[in-house]
Amino acid sequence: YNHEWDQEEICWHRILGLIFDQREGNKEIYRDKFILKEGEEETSTLEDHLSCKKTLLLYDWIKGNKEMKSLEQEYFLYEGDVLRLAEGFCWLADSLAAIAESAGWKKKRKEDLEKIILLSERLIEGIEEEGLGLARLYIPGLSRYYIKRLVRTGYGDMENLKKASEEELVELVRLLPGRLIKRIQRRMDEERVIQEVKNCEPEPAILSSPLKTTNTTSASHNLKLTSVVSSPPKTENPNSNLNTKNQKLKIVLEISQHRPDRIIFMGKEFKVTTIGFSLLYLLAEHREKVVSYEEILKDLWKGEKDAIYTRINYHICKIRKDISKIMDKKEDNTKKIENIFKAIPGRGLMLNIKEEELEIN
């Protein structure tokens, strides 16, 4: 009785099942690697067997059906090994997406490019596509397990949670811990306030000509105009508003512990992962000082003895890439993005932003 051989057979047939379920059996890469070998006397080499196990592990991981403990027991790995493997393949998917984008896939094969980008996100989060909206909120404690439960009950994104009635929110208590529900409600309140502020922002044309706004029905506009008319301009410092604007423009990076899901760079908001935020926050606390790689690894990957430098480098590259997507393609901006982080050979890493350009809340 050969237990190892049985395990190989099980892995092999699971892979074949997935290939045909996805209707990919006609592709040459699968025919040569899996289908034609099925009838051969020696099914696979050790290398092939390990590749199959990795494939099945990552498939189970991104499906989100199995808890981490179950994955550890089934594949004889620890949590850190699973996360490191997923992170490595996430980096490969990111790299593939970047190559595809430079090859013109954004116009020629937009759907395929989007699939690669979504796969990259799923690999880092360990969930199905339907749960990515919740994962992007980066709410502390909202794990893949709880995201799966919310998706199954119809709360796949923030919009569905906002529309939920009081009775439906009470029902969530059965699905999630009370503390986590409070965090979600706080985030919903924050999002609601942000949306209200955006909706109440006056249009430039209205502000530029107060006399033309007497017929406006907006209470907020009337209040602002009343204050402008009733309060004469201050003569002691005519440039005070200009100075305030200039001071605000000097801020390059804004980080808030209350919003670990995003960073503001040069006035523009972009999303970050939990690890990406932790890395930026750690470096911001030691601004203009070198933080050793050992200290970063210990702080960000506590308890993982085999955490390596490449994990730091991956998140640095991802942050730069995400910022580049939303910034104007100017030479000055490219240099600023490239110079956010400064690597000191043999010592560590530092956030290359001056104290007056950094705002931490």
Automatic annotation (TrEMBL):
<dbReference type="Pfam" id="PF00486">
    <property type="entry name" value="Trans_reg_C"/>
</dbReference>
<dbReference type="GO" id="GO:0000160">
    <property type="term" value="P:phosphorelay signal transduction system"/>
</dbReference>
<dbReference type="Pfam" id="PF21280">
    <property type="entry name" value="Helicase_dom4_arc"/>
</dbReference>
<dbReference type="InterPro" id="IPR001867">
    <property type="entry name" value="OmpR/PhoB-type_DNA-bd"/>
</dbReference>
<dbReference type="GO" id="GO:0006355">
    <property type="term" value="P:regulation of DNA-templated transcription"/>
</dbReference>
<dbReference type="InterPro" id="IPR036388">
    <property type="entry name" value="WH-like_DNA-bd_sf"/>
</dbReference>
<dbReference type="InterPro" id="IPR048772">
    <property type="entry name" value="Hel308-like_dom4"/>
</dbReference>
<protein>
    <recommendedName>
        <fullName>OmpR/PhoB-type domain-containing protein</fullName>
    </recommendedName>
</protein>
<dbReference type="InterPro" id="IPR016032">
    <property type="entry name" value="Sig_transdc_resp-reg_C-effctor"/>
</dbReference>
<keyword id="KW-0238">DNA-binding</keyword>
<feature type="domain" description="OmpR/PhoB-type">
    <location>
        <begin position="240"/>
        <end position="353"/>
    </location>
</feature>
<dbReference type="GO" id="GO:0003677">
    <property type="term" value="F:DNA binding"/>
</dbReference>
